[in-house]
Amino acid sequence: MSGTFITFEGIDGSGKSTQLRLLNNYLRENDCQVLLTREPGGTTLGLRLRAALLDAREEVDPLTELLVFAADRAQHVRRVLRPALAAGGIVISDRYADATVAYQGAGRGFSPELIHEIVQLATEGLTPDLTLLFDVSVEESTTRTTRRSGKNSAGKNQRDRLDIEDEDFHKRVRKAYLAIATAEPERVKIIDTSGTVETTHQHVKEIIVPFLAARGQLRKVAADQLELRRV
């Protein structure tokens, strides 16, 4: 494959989705061919699965959750990711397989062996070229997700089924994400999101721009401009 596969990971409220949109705008301004996608929900089938999986009113068995996420990923890999990468584009996904390791593995307590087997089955071994892990404390995450969700017309909180898990669950997920970064430092880069949105965006560009420039997928002028700002 000639394209570049980048994933954004992190617990809810880490700001990764906002940073994905900002990076997309920046790359498109520099004439890059970019495809933004997400898991779950990167395909038509995935959108329906996402609605069921994240509905806070739906009682979903942990094993069912694991397998449905895997089904969503299998469809995503075959229908979206591989074709886009084969065409030479830059694909950026809001979550991918690391999320299963963190949420269903550490969060739900499934064994690493089972998680590995299911991830391999769904992805057929497709791994990201680069992963940005947006890190934030669980306390700040809770504050942010509560603030952004608000209430619906019936006065009920709109946080999704994973948002409303207890603090210990989210601490296990964050710990697992950090463990992945420690185990794979060449692929996974940690970005502290405790600062402003613009500060975080600058950190993202400091990683992404030279990475894409080295792969011939970003104009040299963009890399030069970033270097001047850093100096």
Describe the structure.
This protein is of the alpha/beta class. The chain has one domain (4-230): 3-Layer(aba) Sandwich (Rossmann fold). It has nine helices and five strands, in the order βαβααβααβααβαα. The chain has a five-stranded parallel sheet, sandwiched between helices. Helix 4 packs across helix 7 (167-183). Mean pLDDT is 88; it is low at 151-157.
Rg over CA atoms, rounded to whole Å, is 18 Å
What's the total number of strands? Answer: 5
The helix fraction, in percent, is 55-70%
- Which fold name fills CATH's third level, the topology? Rossmann fold
Assign the CATH architecture. 3-Layer(aba) Sandwich
Tally the helices: what do you get? 9
Element pattern in H and E: EHEHHEHHEHHEHH
Structural class call reads alpha/beta
What layout of secondary structure does this protein have?
Layout: E1 4-9, H1 16-29, E2 34-38, H2 44-54, H3 62-86, E3 90-94, H4 97-107, H5 112-123, E4 130-135, H6 138-149, H7 167-183, E5 188-192, H8 197-214, H9 220-230
Helix pairs in contact: 1-8, 2-3, 3-5, 4-5, 4-7, 8-9
Which descriptors apply to this entry?
231 residues, alpha/beta, Rossmann fold, five-stranded parallel β-sheet, 9 helices, globular
